[in-house]
UniProtKB/TrEMBL annotation:
It comes from the Bacteria. This is Release factor glutamine methyltransferase. Coiled coil: none annotated. Pfam families: MTS. The lineage of its organism: Bacteria, Bacillati, Actinomycetota, Actinomycetes, Streptosporangiales. It comes from Nocardiopsis mwathae. Keywords: Methyltransferase, Transferase.
Amino acid sequence: MSNSTETALQGASESVREIVRGEVDELIASVDEYDDVEVVKVNGECWILLKGVYDPQEDPGAGLYPGWVPFPKGGEFLEMGCGVGLVSVAAARAGCRRVTALDVDPEAVRNVALNAHLHGVLESVRAQRSDLFSALGPDERFDTIFWNPPYLNPPSDRAGGDAHAAFYDPDYSIIRRFVESAPAHLAPGGRILLGFGSDGDVELLKRIADKAGARLEVVAEAVREYETSRRGVSISYWLIEVATA
């Protein structure tokens, strides 16, 4: 890890992380209030949102990644945990030859296909249900693999149920599996990219990368203000490359 990356990747205080976790709990509790289908606006564009799929409006960082990810024009792109498909649609628009959008939630798979159709790129986007890379063939390779994972690391009494899985990854067990498994699906010269924020467990992510023999390099960063019911907090958002030897 370079000195500049080490300096940039500074986690938020525990008080800020606790405020964010409290806000997430309120959002999870209210999920049943939504209609089956909504139309939301992100970056000035309309997106279909199916009930139970993570609402990108709730994440101040979600709209950053479509403009940050260096899409491989003419190449193969994979978005893990595609949600409504903001990044997958952006990849297809940027000229990727094929975009693969994976999510463990079948409604998210349906959702990204709907948005690909809405934005005129359905022919370039393949959406599949998958537990990380389980739906892929052993020889499938990609020029870029991107994931904006659930990166809140909660106390043991905070995590449980499908709704929590959109936000919480206890002890980063899923992120760990991703970091270990993604290199097997990289084309020569390919890149693994993670969306992450200072409200996550930065030190744990560093330890996971170190154990996997990978380097963390910050590709892009921004600070966003996040209003909660308790007070406003500042969160740093990063696009991080997980560089393997």
